[in-house]
Design a protein that fits this description.
Layout lengths: L1 H6 L5 H50 L1 H5 L3 H13 L5 E6 L4 E6 L8 H10 L4 E7 L2 E9 L2 H54 L12 H36 L9 H13 L1 H4 L2 E8 L2 H8 L1 H19 L4 E6 L2 E7 L4 H14 L4 E2 L5 E2 L3 E7 L6 H23 L1
Antiparallel strand pairs: 1-2, 1-4, 3-4, 5-7, 5-10, 6-7, 8-9
Length: 406
Amino acid sequence: MNKEFSSTPRPTFKRTLRRISMISVVITMTLIWLLLCIASVVTLKQYAQKNLELTTATMSRSLEASLVFNDATAAGEILATLGKQGQFAVAEVLDVHHKRFASWSWNPDDNPDTLGTLVSRLLFPVPAVQPVMHNGNVIGEVRITARDSLISHFIWTSFAVLTGCIFLAAFVALAITRSLHHGIVTALQNITEVVHDVKTNRNFSRRVDEERIEEFHRFGQDFNSLLDEMEEWQLKLQARNAQLMRTAMHDPLTGLANRAAFRNSIAALMNDSSAQFNSALLFLDGDDFKQINDTWGHAAGDCVLIDVASRMVDFGGQRHQSYRLGGDEFAMILYGVHSTTDVQQICNALSQQFLLPYDLHNGHTATMSLSIGFALTWENTSVEALLEQADRNMYQAKKQRSKIIS
């Protein structure tokens, strides 16, 4: 269930906002249309009712003489004359005894309108009634029923005009809403892109652009301030991590890479098939270094070790990498060598660097040589074998030197 839900594409904020806007506008305009229609119908009913009552009052005065002289023909002619003008649909004149005196009706076959009849019955359920007076006495009454065709025509015309106005207003509202939403969507997209870039790529130098909307502008400023702090924290953390890495991977006395860095480098070298065929490892161990410490102290011994490291770096340059493994033990990885002869020539040249006296910084100097043993990377298949061979050759060189001195 969760897998299916997660695979379903999620709608964007822009699309969601557009849908909400359209639905809101449609619902709002529909409600306004219904309210206006109801208000129009109620107003029309009141207006038509007043007009019908006014027509009935006028007819009662016109029919007064017909009722007094009992002239039903004249009364019928008056009803027909007014009825043909479209004032009403049905008109009846009753005498004082409530008997039909005269009547007239619109012929429904001329203009059948079932819906109009229904609307007429809803708006005017009972006809308008007006008594006919003569000398202050009631001599009859007039009953008039509104004409449904006029009412329905007016209602449909009103509905059509209202519907057109509503559609026009809805179109304008949607256009204005879309314009306003564009600014909101653009601001949110800008903020979202910056947040995603910071989260994914750790790009704390990214900033939110200025926005026209005041609330988003203030939010962008606050967010940029937060990014400034995060960037500062990141830089401090990176500097701290770099310092810790340097401390962890470098010898604090000589500044050379330490044993941990050496293990990483030699492992990477043996895993690189292209570099393995033109590299070599040198192990260096100080001769009579203990005598310098015993004679002049550890401060003088430290000066010798620092000078040895400096000479190794000057000799190796950017091509070869030097390491201090501990005490008076050093190592160097040679790159770009292709034969045993190349390595031996480098070892002889490196040995010459250690023949010069060392300044002990106490007004004295001392001499110390270093025994060098090497191992060729292309002759070994593992790190352990390479280290063992270099170490063994270094001790053989130390033994040969001891024999020569003795």
